[in-house]
Amino acid sequence: MPRNPLSTGIRALSVLSAFLNEFADRTQTETVLALVMRTLEKISYRPFCSRSFHSGRLRPAQQDLYRVLGLPRTATQKDIKKAYYQMAKKYHPDTNPDDPQAKEKFAKIAEAYEVLSDEVKRKQYDTYGSADPSARGAEQQYWRYGIPTDPEELFRKIFGDFVGARGFGDFSSMFEQPPEFVMELTFTQAAKGENKEITVNLEDSCPRCKGKGHEPGTKVMHCHYCGGTGMESINTGPFTMRSTCRRCGGQGSIMIMPCVMCRGTGQTKQRQTVMVPVPAGVEDGQTIRMSVGKKKINITFRVQTSPVFRRDGSDIHSDVMISVAQAVLGGTARAQGLYNTVDIMIPPGIQTDQTIRLGGKGIAHMGRGGYGDHYVHIKVRVPRKLTRRQRELMLSFAQDETDVEGTVHGVTRPPTGTKRSSLRKRRQDSSPD
């Protein structure tokens, strides 16, 4: 007689299989054998294979657990948990009350996660579970994992009992997005950051019933359908699914007289003023999440354009107008900065659209400290009107230019290629002999 309890269990399983196939129907057979197989798994996590367990009526259905979760075989534990979370959210019975196949899909997802999230079980599954039975010759071996807990319990273990005593009736609330509000900001407010108020309408405890949902002075009736637990159990083959009580909606009690203000919800819309800490450097369209009491809200910022500054990440750009004399001779110019007015040095011969960099005078880097730069773009202002003296000086200046392409009004060009101004000619004609 084998001393190994696993071997003993497998032999017993073979005998039991033959007995059930002879005297029991298919549903009873699958249920009993599934329970026995899960018991054997508790004895040893080694994959159990049986050459004698080849019943023609019962052959464990194979499924690719990686495909169930939509993952490659190289998936990490982080990928496995993320995929399970997303698919459990999609196929949970409470979020799919009209889909009769949701419970079956949810159970398969839970089974796949139960195996692949355990490194030992996953290694065994990779070694034995995906092998093609026809490729193993006479030693046909079959593999099937059972899960020791129901799918609901597995989900609760992983993500926590987030609904407290109310059970999975509030499952959908876990995936509800917080209400979103829009806050308008000027360019300077977004760049510097500040605390700014916003008025929002949020659901809060009903002031009439204090969040209880029933009229003050009235009582609630204990739900006899679920025994006050808020949960009901539904048997689905080898699994027992726990779902929200259809009578009390997961509350565990039934209100005889709902509150007339909140209509039994315990919540009403209330107008509140909230102080929002606007982070320095926030950009248009960015969203932050903040707490308002026990609620979470999203604030999306809409940043207005500036008539002075242009933004490029944490850098800002602006223009400064200078005169022709400043451009030629150099000097200083005053520019409006983000935080104060700054004097910039203009080097002689500066060209229009040339930039001057003011390091660290830009917008704060969000999350990593430091500041961007301020780039000042030079724009040379050409006068539209000149005094008589200015015109004479410009003609004199133009007379000495040697790099002019084309002509200058009022300046003649002799055949020799040198320039002579009409002003000089008039002066020579008027001078005494």
From TrEMBL:
SMART domains attached to this UniProt entry: DnaJ (SM00271)
Keyword Acetylation included in the entry's annotation: yes
Membrane topology: Peripheral membrane protein
Family annotation (SUPFAM superfamilies): Chaperone J-domain (SSF46565), DnaJ/Hsp40 cysteine-rich domain (SSF57938), HSP40/DnaJ peptide-binding domain (SSF49493)
Main location: cytoplasm
J domain ranges (all copies): 64-129
Keyword DNA repair among UniProt keywords: no
Compartments where found: Cytoplasm, Cytosol; Mitochondrion matrix; Postsynaptic cell membrane
InterPro entries registered for this protein in UniProt: Apopto_cytoskel_mod, DnaJ, DnaJ_C, DnaJ_domain, DnaJ_domain_CS, HSP40/DnaJ_pept-bd, HSP_DnaJ_Cys-rich_dom, HSP_DnaJ_Cys-rich_dom_sf
A GO molecular-function annotation: unfolded protein binding
Start and end residues of each stretch annotated as Disordered: 404-433
Superkingdom assignment: Eukaryota
Function text: Modulates apoptotic signal transduction or effector structures within the mitochondrial matrix. Affect cytochrome C release from the mitochondria and caspase 3 activation, but not caspase 8 activation. Isoform 1 increases apoptosis triggered by both TNF and the DNA-damaging agent mytomycin C; in sharp contrast, isoform 2 suppresses apoptosis. Can modulate IFN-gamma-mediated transcriptional activity. Isoform 2 may play a role in neuromuscular junction development as an effector of the MUSK signaling pathway.
Name the UniProt record assigns to this protein: DnaJ homolog subfamily A member 3, mitochondrial
Taxonomy of the source species: Eukaryota, Metazoa, Chordata, Craniata, Vertebrata
